[in-house]
Amino acid sequence: MREITVFSGSAHPALAQEICSHLGVPLSPSRLTRFANDCLEVQLEANCRERDVFIVQPVVTPVQEHLMELLLMLDAARGASAARITAVVPHYAYGRSDKKDAPRISIGGRLVADLMVTAGASRVLTMTLHSPQVHGFFSIPVDHLHALKELAAHFQKYDLSNAVAVSPDLGNAKETAHFARLIGAEVAVAAKQRFANDKVRISSIIGDVTGKDVIVLDDEIAKGSTMFELLNHLRERKAKTIGIACTHGLFADGAAKRLSDQPDILEVVCTNTAPIKPEQQMAPKLKVLSIAKPMADAIQRIHDGQSVSALFQN
Asked: Is 192 among the residues known to form the active site?
């Protein structure tokens, strides 16, 4: 197989460019056209024949537009005789659609996985899937990265002698425990329920947070409903300080600013798996960490036939 060739969709070209800088390869050009009937067409403007092609496109708002663009790019690379095509999807929005929890609904995570394979993906590189079982929806190899090391390295700059890492629900408890080990902190877990109207209720917190420096860790923050509900309980339990960390900072409805406006929140930390909108970047307590380097390292290892899991060995 010949050298690495990287293309970017329109979802997050800045991340793709940063990944290419770490790899030491140029970002290959592509063209997206929208016709009068609203159909899209993609053209890859660099040679793909027998190349190891990587297409960087997080599935983020507008999700359906960016997903369709990704599928067209995969199909274009396959038609151009690429030797292997890896879909680099730092954020996989349909990872939340992982089970049939109501009558007559689709499992979008599996359907979209099938569509990506049908379009031409040979493998997938992604980060922090909302539900680990989504990994199994793909019939092709999936390299599932996480950003715990990057988040831990950020918080290790502070005094963590009184810290406790808090998971906002039981589903995220394993990742929070891993994060806590990295920073040498204790662990607490909230018991959360989400109702059909998307309302969130936390009934209790398992673990000691009274007088503690709390770091809440979640996989993603969208509207922030869970965070605001959890904040009320942390205040009732008289937590000393509160920091918030997540991998995917989606921040819908001005969530970054609304969290920054809370006087007892010291910092809101996320990564750049999704682009941060300019109005969200103005949030004074928001800190965005880059995951371009681990993504680039994983791409290089995939190309060289080396272990990707070795990146996460402690």
From this structure: yes
Model pTM score: 0.95
Q: What is the mean pLDDT of the chain?
A: 94
Q: Are 311 and 294 in contact (CB under 8 A)?
A: yes
Q: What is the pLDDT of residue 1?
A: 61
Catalytic choice (99, 149, 192, 285) = 192
**pLDDT tens string 22-46:** 999 999 999 999 999 999 999 999 9
Percentage of the chain beyond pLDDT 70 is 98
Spell out the domains of the chain, with CATH numbers in brackets: 4-146+293-312 (3.40.50.2020), 148-290 (3.40.50.2020)
